[in-house]
Amino acid sequence: MSLQRNNSPKDLVGMATVLVLAAFALWWWFGRAEQTTLPLPPTAQFKTKQGQSPSTPAASVPAKNPSPLTNSVLKTSIISLQGAPDATAARKSLAALRATLSAMPTHEAVGLIRQFLDSKADVSTQLGFRIGAHGLLDDAPTLRVYLLDELSRLDPAEAADYAKVILASKDSSDEWAVALRNLARGDDSDAGRTLLQQKTRELLQCESWRQNPSTGFLEAFDVAVYLGGDGLMPTLTDLIRQQTNPAVAHASFLALDRLVLNNPIPTLNGLLADPGLMQGRELTRADYFSRADVGDPRQRQILESYLLNPSTTAAEIDAFASVFPNADFMISPNLLTQSPTLDHTTLVNRDAASLRVAQAWLEDPRFAQLRPELQKTVSRLQGFVRQENGSR
Q: What distance in Å separates the CA atoms of residue 195 and residue 289, rounded to the nearest whole number?
């Protein structure tokens, strides 16, 4: 259903003015279509980052100049974005641009994108930062972010190469989020992974970005999950403890939670080795250890060491016992990793295995002081098992 509204004479004059300005802009752009390189857009029409000049990465091979036709296509898309009355119109404009870029020879599309990115110009899309399938963006807040994402679709190796240009200066946390993803997807070398970890740490530690976090900045925490291990754990736990910034603390909590799920042994070992990492957030630490799968002998050993550690308080043990085995999952699309889930059969089997281990702990003299808390766990899991058996 389409909605119509009546236009007053004043409205019609305004619409005519817009059409005249649009026609003039198109005449100005297309009158220069014989040029073979994309000029730096006039400041009256584009938001350009001050104090910056176009840059070309030293390690990259110069891309071929796009044809006059493709220059005109990009200019038309820019004008369309600037005149888009709402998000729906902006999405249509970007979809048309994607179709045009996809139809071009890849090297030409890549060259066109790199020229625009080098110009440091930008245009708002009126959209947010929204991740879709396979870590690619469904929405991008600016044309630069959109084109960085498009570059990854067209040529992952070129996207990884240009990511190094983006990561050389802290201009935009949203751009860094996409650049980190592009680097991870397009460069699997040891040097690429080292750079990825270094730049992820820089992003997480950037105070100005943390104080006013964009959606892209918060989504970039997934790169730490992708890297795995405990290399970024001190940074994440430090941010978890900073409760004056709830959005960043929550993003850090989720990243560390997924690290526990995806890489439980190094992550839990790191938390066990240094209790100070979660000082003041011990109940949160209990949630992480309640993720341990006691069906894995190594995880069971780590869990037992945690429970018997003198630094583990009674309150923390009680918090652990109330949720172990923790099967709550946060499901969301991410830049690089998949959100882990467990099917029903796996959950049932894990409950049964956890019950057997908890009952064994009750009989083990080492756990004598923990019996009240462990009895709560046993009673809760026995209820789960009875309910499952009764439903069959």
A: 30
**Per-residue pLDDT reduced to its tens digit, 122-147:** 999 999 999 998 999 999 999 999 99
Closest C-alpha among 382, 361, 365 to residue 373: 361
Tens digits of per-residue pLDDT, 175-219? 999 999 999 999 999 999 999 999 999 999 999 999 999 999 999
Confidence (pLDDT) at 195: 98
For residue 325 the two structure tokens come to 């085995």
Cα 93 from Cα 347, distance rounded (Å): 46
CA distance 105 to 157: 16
**Rounded to whole angstroms, how far apart are CA atoms 248 and 7?**
46
- Indicate if the pLDDT at residue 69 is higher than 90: no
59 located within any domain: no
Within a domain: 206: no
Tokens of 109: 């599309």
Residues in the chain: 392
Q: CB under 8 Å to 367, separation ≥6 — which residues?
A: 307, 308, 361, 374
Q: How large is the angle between the packed helices 143-154 and 106-118, nearest 10 degrees?
A: 150
What mean pLDDT comes out for the span 222-227? 97
- In this structure, which amino acid lies at residue 355? L
| Inside any domain, residue 239 | no
Inside any domain, residue 103: yes
Range of the domain at 69: 64-170+179-184
Other C-beta atoms closer than 10 Å to the C-beta of 391 total 6
> Does the pLDDT of residue 109 top 90, yes or no?
yes
Q: How many domains does one find in the chain? A: 1
Question: Whole-angstrom Cα distance, residue 39 to residue 75?
Answer: 10
- Does residue 8 register a pLDDT over 50? no
State the DSSP H helix or E strand holding residue 355, giving kind and residue range, or none if neither: helix 344-363
